[in-house]
Sequence to fold (399 residues):
Amino acid sequence: MASEPPVESERVPPMTTRVTDLEPTAIREMFNLADEQEGDLVRLEIGEPDFDTPGHIIDAAAEAAHDGATHYTSNAGVLELREAIAEKSKREHDLTLDPETEIAVTGGGMEALFLALLAVAGPDEDVLVPTPAWPNYTMQSHLLGANGVEVPMPKADDYQLDADRVIDRMSADTAAVVVNTPTNPTGRIQDLDEIERLVDAAAEHDAYVIADEVYKTLTYDDGDPTSTAAHFDKPQNMLVVNSCSKQYAMTGWRLGWLAGPEPVIEQVCKAHISTTTCASSLAQYGAIEAMTGPQEPIEEMYDAFKERRDFVAKRIDEIPGIDAPYPQGGFYAFIDISEFGSSYDVASKLITDYGVVTVPGTGFGEAGEGSIRISFANSLDRLELAFERIEAMATDERR
Ligand code: PLP
Fold:
């Protein structure tokens, strides 16, 4: 019988530090901790709609498959989809795009961001990220050999974008600045004047502004759904990341796009040949239907998110000891729990002792210490239960 192979033979050759240096994300850590628990957990850590994709979108993709849309498409995406994106961008965000030259369809917003960074951020160049922020901005920068630089925003001002703090960090090494509004994790809409100052300062440094607008259509109250790029007449240094994931409940389809000036989109499409060649053909046909077909199911999802936002904001207000910036868009609330301990300890305790899974604020940069993020992309019943449990934690800790 063959003996066990010696351990040395299991050693694999070295891998790149670009990859091995990456820490597991806070979401993943909480996910793992949650998996070890028994009983009924309320899962508020996941950043995706709880709704399934509306049926007419699924039908359109299936029909396209039966009709033979099972091949590679152009690197920029099928023209019909780019036309639908241009039409939707005008209708919903007042952004004028040339479907022939200013849009690249990608594998989700994540690949749009990756290709944007690949095109504009060179090795050791800086990508400035106002924090707290979605961790992928700094992670992707690191994967590309660039520096993802966290620039903390003031907690006292609900993490409102403070352009001066970012401009102070700009140098000849700055390749790009990321602006995400509405913001994951805070739910805040960033001040347009501050963004304008950033766009101007970035231009002076020959740097790009990457506007991540995947939550733009989930803007509530009198928030402005106009694309940031539309406000400034599409400046040449601005790239816009968008996606079907959140608005149409299509996270698993992996369908997003990058919009920007023709010279950048041309290079991005060239690079796309080597990454995935094109987004999934079937997802592209589903996306056409999502944008051009019946909008009622999409409006219903929006209304449900808004109702949940109202509920969550009310409950946060009612519970002594916690507080949060008022969520103006997206489906997150960033709750200050600093009275009860560190972000990590409180998030862990909420899982093990109270059955609610959240994400520690430090998963969104050092600036997030003292808070936890919840996603309210969950049913009202489950949110009610979650807040009963969060209230129980707050009451116990205050005793
Ligand atoms: N941008 C932000 C701020 C996000 O939160 C996400 C997903 O969570 C994305 C972009 C990318 O989403 P997708 O790749 O599913 O389009």
Observations:
- Residues 47, 108-110, 134, 180, 184, 212, 214, 243, 245, 251, 256 surround pyridoxal-5'-phosphate (CB under 6 Å).
- DSSP finds 14 helices and twelve strands in the chain.
- The mean pLDDT is 95.
- The first strand starts at residue 42 and ends at 43.
